[in-house]
Design brief:
It is built from 9 helices and 11 strands. By secondary structure, it is an alpha/beta fold. Strands 2-1-3-4-5-9 form a 6-stranded parallel sheet, sandwiched between helices.
Length: 300
């Protein structure tokens, strides 16, 4: 039986990971805005008498859409603070534990191959620059503490995660598409999507992501993409959702004046696949069907 600390347990990944680890019989402690808030490292001292096997650092201050464009200073201050606080606590009080931290695909420069060796190379996309750089600095912190103090870590970079049990206020692109098309079908809302719809994105089903993390958790001081290796255009995602909901995709309006971000964001999963032979992979249509049914059952 393992004892773990999860920061950001109320987020999408955090909720699923917590549920999965509990099913294994692991003892879970959490850090969120109500318990052991990371804004002050002293709040974590409530756990000083516990020796954690793992610390899963999932907490981050960000939102989807154009949030990063207008909250750069806020994102820098808060993310640097919470990352520094958890790293400091790890070094001073939980050095026996392995830190499992999450990066972001936003940290990759958009004009190079998005494989792990390139994570710290080049400039991230301008609209996401501040958040992307705080995630890069998190990796630098892990590496630095490991090199000086011998601490052990893993750093995962997932593509956009999706699946059931998402927050209905979550505006990540796939959840946003589902909500808009659903409201177009059942509430006769106008369905307007940002951009021309030809920008490409990649999804990873939440259960697959967690499975890949747990299957590699015994490794040390590594960085891994968690990726399906397949990208689709926003139009393709929208059309698949329309098929499931029986909505006419020709009614969708694509607003090219809105922020769209990079044109492509495909991670390369070769390193992970070589370690665990064949990573678990949920078919896109199956994952979308499960996610859409969850949303329908929540609001009907």
């Amino acid at each position: 039986m393992k004892t773990v600390l999860i920061t950001g347990d109320s987020g999408f990944l955090g909720r699923h990971l917590k549920s999965y680890l509990e099913s294994l019989g692991w003892v879970i402690k959490v850090s969120n805005t109500k318990v052991a808030n990371l804004m002050d490292d002293k709040n974590l001292h409530i756990y000083n008498d516990i020796k954690f096997d793992y610390i899963f650092h999932l907490a981050a201050h960000t939102k989807a859409g154009d949030y990063c464009l207008y909250h750069k200073g806020e994102q820098f201050l808060i993310n640097q603070l919470i990352n520094t606080n958890i790293l400091k606590y790890w070094k001073e009080f939980q050095s026996q534990s392995k830190m499992i931290a999450m990066g972001t695909s936003c940290s990759y420069a958009p004009d190079i191959e998005m494989s792990e060796k390139n994570y710290l190379i080049g400039e991230p996309e301008d609209g996401l620059y501040t958040y992307a750089m705080t995630k890069r600095m998190l990796l630098i912190g892990l590496k630095s503490l490991s090199e000086q103090y011998g601490l052990k870590y893993l750093y995962y970079i997932p593509s956009t995660l999706y699946g059931p049990k998402f927050d209905l206020n979550d505006s990540h692109f796939i959840f946003d598409l589902i909500k808009k098309i659903y409201n177009g079908k059942f509430n006769n809302d106008i369905v307007e999507l940002w951009g021309d719809g030809h920008q490409k994105r990649e999804l990873v089903y939440i259960d697959d992501a967690i499975s890949n993390m747990i299957n590699t958790i015994e490794l040390e001081n590594e960085i891994f993409n968690i990726s399906s290796g397949e990208e689709h255009t926003i139009r393709e995602f929208a059309n698949k959702i329309c098929d499931i909901l029986d909505y006419d995709s020709d009614k969708i309006i694509y607003n090219e004046n809105k922020y769209v971000g990079v044109k492509s964001k495909k991670l390369f999963p070769n390193k992970l696949n070589s370690i665990i032979n064949k990573s678990q992979k949920t078919k896109l249509n199956d994952g979308l069907y499960t996610t859409i049914n969850y949303f329908k059952n929540k609001i009907q």
